Here is the input.
Amino acid sequence: MMKRIFVVTLIMAVGIILLFEESMAIPAFARKYNMSCNVCHSPFPKLKPFGEEFAGNGLVLKDKEPPRFTIDTGDELLLLMREIPLAIRVEGYLRHQPQTVRRSDLQTPYLVKLISGGQVARNVSYYFYFFLGERGEVAGLEDAFVMFNNIFGQDLDVVVGQFQVSDPLFKRELRLTFEDYQIYRAKAGISSVNLTYDRGVMMTYALPTSTDIVLEVLNGNGIGAADAVRSFDDDTYKNGMLRITQDVGESFRIGAFGYLGNQEKNGFVNKTTMWGPDLTFSLDPVEINVQYVARTDDKPLFTPASIEQKTDGGIAEFVYRPEGDRSRWYGVFLYNWVNSDDARLNYRTASAHAGYLVGRNFRVLGEYTYDLEQKANRFTAGFVAAF
Here is the structure.
């Protein structure tokens, strides 16, 4: 039975490859600069170092902005884009989970995003995406921020808006696997605090020693709707995260972060602390990413009887591209684990993922995940497109 399911999943992935043999759509920034998506991504949406530099520079190429892309109004203080840059990302999947009641599911489309970003003034850029559809619903805005670049002529950037707290660690939105980075999503008790989306300010400073320092000041309660008095934050507290990374040669990057926050509910305050190291090794054709997170909440149920809860976990990710950034085939192995005093948070999975670039902006994939906690199998085949 297991062999038959694996063969069906493989046939579906290959079938999608044959069906979409030539996909030539070009996303917004590739259109603007008349260049391949491969300049920044390999494979998309995963960023190469050049892509990370482009994003960190406010989504512009230094001294290479095409004059045709802006309107000459005669006003030096007005930088007006001739066209609003737009792109669309679409994902669709067929999933089979033999240990569940609903064993097979056609999840097409799984999500549809409208994406836009660009420069609105000198050293000021914006980026957002809107979920036209996510798992069958209109989800609205997730990432949505303004970025101030090279403040005071220094390598100091400030981002204001909605973003993922974990973006300076490993970006969930840029992962290649369907399986998520579970430790970033973990919440203790009824706390709203985790390492996914929040509203706040993120400041990044780059030192000449190849050291990056990131400081985040956050509401600490996610990106839900405003309340009756038009406030997004639901208490008087602000949370903070400090992140430091250091490049070691051309292949290694080491880092560590610390998170401290308070959240008030029902007249009680829960104090959350998180910390952890991480490591990246990148030398074609291999990339290895490792993250560890330790978390403590002193009153996660916000009641007099609430007791301290400890949670820890992490990810270990191995990416293989046989021909480096020119590869059309790639493979990923991802191991997830979460251990907690609250058994409901316990999570352990191992995922094997293979993908093929039909075009630089269209990839098909097959993925197998084994849930070590539930002793269950999950098979996924699908596509990811951006144009």
The radius of gyration is 22 Å. The mean pLDDT is 87. Helices lie at 2-19, 28-33, 49-56, 182-185.
